[in-house]
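Contributing new records

If you add data, match the layout below exactly. Sequence lines come first and carry their own label; structure lines follow with theirs. Keep one chain per record. Anything else will be rejected by the validation script.
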Amino acid sequence: MDSILAGVALALTWQSILAVLAGIVAGQLLGAIPGLTATMTVALLIPYTYYLDPWVGIPMLVGMFKGSLFGSSVTAILVKTPGTPAAAATVLDGYPMAQQGKGEKACKMALYSSVFGDSFSDIVLIFGASFLAAIALKFGPAEYTLLVAFSLLTMGFVSGAKIWKGLFAMLLGMLLGIVGLDPVTASPRLTLGFLELEEGIGLIPMLIGFLAVAEVMRQMELPRKHLATSTVSFSDDPADRRVSWLEFKGVLPTLLKSSSLGTAVGALPGISATVAAFLAYNEAKRSSKNPEKYGKGELNGIAAPESANNAVSGANLIPLMAFGIPGDIAAALILSALLIQGITPGPVVFRDNPEPIYAIFTALLLANFFNLILGHGLIKMARRVVTVPKRILFPVVLVIAAASAYAMRGSIFDVQLVFLFGLLGWGLTKLAFPTVPLLIGFILMPILESNLRVSMLIAGSVPNPFAYFLGRPAFVTLLVVMFLLLVLVMRRILRDREAARAAGLRSGG
C-alpha cells in the first residue's frame, strides 16, 4: 500500500500532470491529421525521455497515444477522413450522422466512448494484468487463424442486404491484402512489376483513398449549387448537439461489450486497434435488433469501434507489464522508453520498481480525464473548420490526402494509390457493394496468412497433424464456441430473409 500511495503522489506532481496534458493535446492534434500518427512522433521523442523521470516521460507518451485515437475520430466523422487507421470504422456511422446535422453529437459520442474504453482497459490492466496475460499466452498461430477466419466469414455474411456482395467485397479486400512479397519464399505476388508494391499496399493510402477521395468524387457528381454549401451542417436543435443520459444509457451495453472485446484483442500480441474496431462494429451490428440502421447514423455504430480501439491502448500493456512482451507497436515503443529508464517489464517489475509503475498506472487514468475535458475543445475547433463551402474544402481534402500518403514513406507511388483507391471506392459505392468487408478483409488477410502458414508448418512437423490441433484446449474451445456462433448467425440470416420474403408477399397481395 505504501508503494501504491507513493506512486500516486508521483503521478500527481505538477511535472507529471503537465506532461500528460502536453501529450493529450499533441496526440489529439496529430491524430486529426491523416497520416501524421502519434506513433511517428513518439518514436522521435523516446530518446528525450531519458532526461525525464519515468513518471513524467512515460505518461506523456501514453497521453499522446490516447489523444491521437480520439483526434482521428473527429476528422473521420466530419470530413470522412480518418486520421489513423483505427478510426476507419467510425466513418461508417459517424459521417452519416454528420450529414444529418448531428456531427457534434457524433463527435461527443466518440469522445465518451473513447474515454469509456480507455478507462475500462486501464482498470483491467491495473487489477488483472497477470491473469489476462496468462490467457493471451495460450493463443498460438492455430488459435489466431481460427479467430481471424471466423471474423472474415461472419463479416461477409452480415455486411449487406445481398450476401454475395458482402462475400465478394471481403474476397477483394483479402486479394489486395496479399499484394507484396511472399512472407516465406520472398517471391513477388500481384505486384504487376512495380517495386513499390513489394512492401505491400500501405494501409493509410488505401483507407484515405477508399473513404475520403471516394466521398469527394461522389459529392462532385451532385449539382454545382451543391458545392456552395458546407460539407456538413450543424442542427440548431440542442438534442442534435449533445448525447443525453438516455442515449448514453442505451449504448452502455455496446460500450461494455466492445470495451471487453477491445481489451481481449489488445491483450493478444500482434493484433492492432484497427482490427479491434472493425470486430467490435461487426459484433454490434450482428447482435443488434435493428442491424439495418447501421451505416445510416447509428449511435451504437460509433460507440462500438471507438470504445474497442481505445480499449486496446491500455490492454496492449497487459502482456508488456506481466511478461515483458509488447502487444503492438505502441507497446513496443513504451517498452523501449522503459528500458531507457532502467525498468525491465516482466513478472518482477512490481517488486523491483513498484513506485514508477503505480505512478504510470495513475497517469493512465489521469490522461483519460484530460482527454475528456480537452476533447470538447477539439470538437468546437473542428466544427468551425468544416463549415467552409465544399468548393473550398474539397480541394483541401484532396491535398491533405495526397500529403498524408506521401508522408508515410516519402513515395509518389502512394499518392497515386490514394487516387486509384478513390476511383475503386467510388465505383463500388455506385454498385452498392458494402465497404466494411473489403476493409477488414484487407486488414486481416496478412494476419490470417502468416498464422495459417505457421500452423501448417508446425502441424506438418509432427506425426499426427490432427493431434496437434485437437490437443490444444484453447483451439478446441474456440472451435466449439465459433461453431455455435456461426449457427446462430446463419439462423438469424435465414429468419430475416424469410421475414422479408413474407413482408414482400403481403405487400404484393
